[in-house]
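Ticket 4471: requesting a sanity check on a complex prediction with zinc ion. Repro inputs:
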Amino acid sequence: MVKALVARSAGADLAVEEIELPRPEPGEVRVRIAAAGVCHSDLSMINGTVRPKFPLVLGHEAAGVVIETGSEVRRVAEGDHVVINWSPACGECAFCQHGEPWLCVTMEGVTSRPRGTLADGTPTHVTLGVGALAEEVVVGEGALVTVSPELPMADAALLGCAVLTGVGAVHNTARVRQGESVAVIGLGGVGLSAVAGAQLAGAERIVAVDISADKEELARTCGATDFLISNPELPQVVHSLTDGLGVNHTFECVGRSDTIRAAWQSTRRGGTCVVVGMGSRDDKISFSALELFHFARTLTSSVYGSADPDRDIPGIASAVLSGSLNLDAIVTHQISLSDVPAAFDRMRHGEGGRSIVLFT
Ligand code: APR
Ligand code: ZN
Ligand code: ZN
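Returned structure tokens:
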């Protein structure tokens, strides 16, 4: 039995419960989790934004050590330090074949299958096929990316979601180039990673935006050159900072129609507006036919940083180890499993950066 943070239903109180995980099947691996982040997508699982199956073990942003391998496992061995990739590519579907592993369709099959049981024998689901807010997980070997033991586990955990998503949105989706200008709206783990990624890409002007003044210092430490509190005049202010043009690229890291709209209007003609946040199906947004034509902007989304995790997680890990990508400002709270509900409360109020559960 291992301890795990379980949601019995949407809106129910969370509890640390004992769960029984299955032995690894062929191609599967048991990982002892060392560090796991509290991501907004976990909150979206329990607040009605998305509708997963319950009971549900939360958590999908994590790193740990391989402790048991099933038969036919080739990618990892016992003792390896691994980052968990919550969107392992099958390599065979139309998207994988087209070089878009982040859109792989096998994901749905992985996430809808229960994994493990609660103490009373009830089968439990695990968030995004992982369920990483737990002492251990059992995942397919394709979900594991080996990293150097020198990489601190808290940083490694972030590489599994926030950092891959934020840095990937900048480097892979928008392909930000040296000297360009960007704006990042929403400065949680994902947005702060986008700011750090923009600095790594050599962006000259990095405008960071949030509703919480708390975030200014964190954003500036990650590389922001300007900080603005979100307000209805945001696009005009961004234009005034950029010779009336708007920024080359905007990254919406909240998941709301009003901030997507603000990001869109803050983007210069011909620029790219990237939706990184995961919003709800009911939150609608509209564009006039004329503005879509006139502004010649690209509106796109970035799912999991448009990343190939097998390529990009090692690349980002090297950038962290060499000091060129500094993640120090992103983690503001190191907590234990029972503190996760308080971390969700901070998240609801826009307080702090990432909270990371450290398992000892
Ligand atoms: N304008 C600007 N910032 C806002 C607004 C707003 N209207 N509303 C919320 N924010 C800020 C919050 O203050 C917080 O700093 O957005 C940030 C969101 O951060 P987190 O809740 O920590 O979320 P994070 O884990 O970074 O994920 C961001 O990406 O992957 C998706 O599902 C995830 O939609 C979520 C988004
Ligand atoms: Zn996440
Ligand atoms: Zn696939």
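Notes from triage: Residues 2-146+330-358 form a domain with the Quinone Oxidoreductase; Chain A, domain 1 fold (CATH 3.90.180.10). Leaving this open until the requester confirms.
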